[in-house]
Design brief:
Helix 1 runs antiparallel to helix 3, helix 1 packs parallel to helix 4 and helix 4 packs antiparallel against helix 5. This protein is an all-alpha fold and 158 residues long. It has one domain. It contains 5 helices and no strands.
């Protein structure tokens, strides 16, 4: 029983670390490889939109920029949710939890942009830190909404 309890405290942090490693690895890709990945995703988006609304014409270059910035946003949205879960399991609550989530996510975003200074063809952009931070804030809000909904349904909140 004690091992199970320890695992329940550590598992969310393990997921946070794995997610951070994923972000780090994506940022460690040379610009050419990163662009190739995002263009592949963008092409799938265009393909899907054209199936749903065939009359729509999309510009691949401008849409690719949007896909790249949305990736920043959503990756940090997920990070913020997992950090909140990890802190909640460790019984850190209230404003302390909120400040820790924001602090961890923003500091990681800053460190990630700094890391990109050393990757071929990449650079640091303050704009990306703001996009990452906005994603984290939306993640915090989503987490709060889901927890309120679960507590009203008499399900144990996360």
């Amino acid at each position: 029983m004690l091992k199970y309890r320890k695992l329940m405290y550590l598992l969310p942090w393990l997921i946070v670390v794995i997610w951070m490693l994923l972000i780090f690895n994506l940022s460690a890709q040379a610009a050419q490889n990163s662009d190739k990945l995002s263009i592949g995703v963008t092409e799938k988006v265009v393909e899907t939109v054209e199936k749903v609304t065939p009359e729509t014409e999309l510009n691949l270059d401008s849409l690719n920029h949007i896909v790249r910035k949305n990736a920043h946003f959503f990756i940090y949205l997920v990070l913020a949710i997992w950090v909140q879960i990890a802190l909640g399991v460790n019984r850190i609550k209230g404003i302390k939890r909120l400040l820790l989530v924001i602090g961890i996510c923003v500091l990681f975003a800053v460190s990630d942009e700094f890391h990109q200074l050393f990757v071929a063809g990449r650079g640091a952009q303050v704009k990306d830190v703001f996009i990452d931070s906005a994603g984290a804030i939306v993640g915090i809000v989503i987490y709060g909404i889901v927890n309120r909904f679960l507590s009203k349904k008499s399900v144990k909140p996360l």
